[in-house]
Amino acid sequence: MTELASVSFPAVRESALGPPECPRGSRGEAPITRLTFEDGRPGWLVTGHSAARAVLADPRFTARGERHHPPVPRAPTLGESPAASTGMFNRQENAREKPEEQHYRKLLLGQLGDERMYRLTGWIEKSTEELLDAMEHHGAPADLLEHFSLPLPSLVICELLGVPDADREEFQRASAVWSGLGETAEAVLGAFTSLNAYLHRLVPRRRAHPGDDLLSGLIAADDALTDDELASIAFLLLAAGHETVAHQLALGVLTLLENPGQLAALRADPSLLDGAVEELLRHLSVVHHGPTRAALEDVEIDGRLVRAGEIVMVSLTAANHDPERFTAPATLDLTRDATGHLAFGHGAHRCLGRRLARIELRVALGALLRRFPRLRAAVPPRQIPLRHDAPVRGVRRAPVTW
Shortest CA distance to 400 belongs to which of 382, 370, 366, 374? Predict the structure, then answer.
């Protein structure tokens, strides 16, 4: 096998709204390439769509181990997620997924079924309209991130977990700081600590006074789950379901505003909405640092031999812009069949909340465009401040007017 030159990661995105740039040297060479992590450790970078699916679905690669070697350095002030220290989220080097982890995923899937999604859809529609009422009352210009795209998924998480109405304002405030509005590392760490402590108080309340929420459902399905396990699951749902949806929504709206032809087509034909959500998920690929996997044994991927113990990073960004899978991938095309994109991952660790995320994005985007037919960006794209210090691609603000 011919050895490839190592590429560097991460790539810094210069534009908030343009198609993402693949890591330097990766596109046009091979679907899997030698990689040098920022700390100098060698590994592999997967950029091809089919190779990415192969790695993510192969049980010879483990999701354990990336906590000890993230693709980019973590900010030390943000602490360790409480989800990392218990059961489902405890990742030991070179160990296969334990049966209890599969049990946790099965329990969660059981709580995210048709009945709950049906109830949540109506609730999301009502909450979306209330947030738009408040944004309209605030007046233009407004920060779409602050007034709409951050609070909506936070409210959804509140409803999902059974956070009492009296606690939701403070929960939302802490969630917003942790997921995008925090001005300092100290503020973000304070919000992180506050949310963690609150979820540990919420679980016993749900155990004592069960309702129709997900935590009560998990307790009823398996009363052996400890309070720490339940709080960790709740934190994971918050971490996975808030920041990603918020920034996907904000970036999606700004991207449509920068593509007036596509936006006009969507306004003229609302039946394009479902496909538009999928194309925006593919086009934006907001999770741009990973996921990573460790090889449990020697594995050949697309003609390259990955040795046992080597770290492989799958670039979902690059896979979603692979010209072998998507024609003219840098072009936003709302009529494209974008099914098969990897925005939610693939395989055993595919995002459990993907169905809920799609509902939120579809409802929010449709309602926003109906409410504000003259919606437009309030500043040029180059003036939109970007986030470069988080695994989720996003913006610091999303100023719009109407």
Answer: 374
Among 70-84, 254-268, 296-310, 319-333, the minimum mean pLDDT is found in 70-84
Strand ranges of the sheet holding 32-36, from the earlier edge strand across to the other edge:
7-8, 32-36, 42-46, 311-314, 292-295, 61-62
Provide the sign of the torsion angle of the four alpha carbons 209, 215, 220, 222, taken in this order.
negative
Query: Lowest-pLDDT range, 46-60, 72-86, 193-207?
Result: 72-86
The average confidence (pLDDT) of the chain is 85
Between the two ends of the chain, the Cα-to-Cα distance in Å is: 57
Look at the block and give the residue holding tokens 């949540």: 120
Q: What is the pTM of this model?
A: 0.89
Give the span between the Cα atoms of 377 and 251, in whole angstroms: 11
Query: What's the Cα-to-Cα distance from 69 to each of 219, 294, 313, rounded to whole Å?
Result: 33, 10, 11
- pLDDT at residue 235 above 80? yes
Nearest CA to 246 out of 169, 181, 165, 159 is that of 181
CA distances (Å), 240 to each of 47, 157, 353, 389, in order? 23, 10, 8, 17
DSSP state letter for 66: T
The token pair that represents 110 in the structure block:
């059981």
d(CA 151, CA 143): 12
Instruction: Identify the band that residue 23 occupies on the pLDDT scale cut at 50, 70 and 90.
Output: low
Q: Take residue 172 and report the two structure tokens written for it.
A: 């939302």
20 contact partners, CB below 8 Å, separation of at least 6: 13, 284, 285, 288, 317, 321, 393
- Half-sphere exposure of 245 toward its Cβ, with a 13 Å CA cutoff? 32
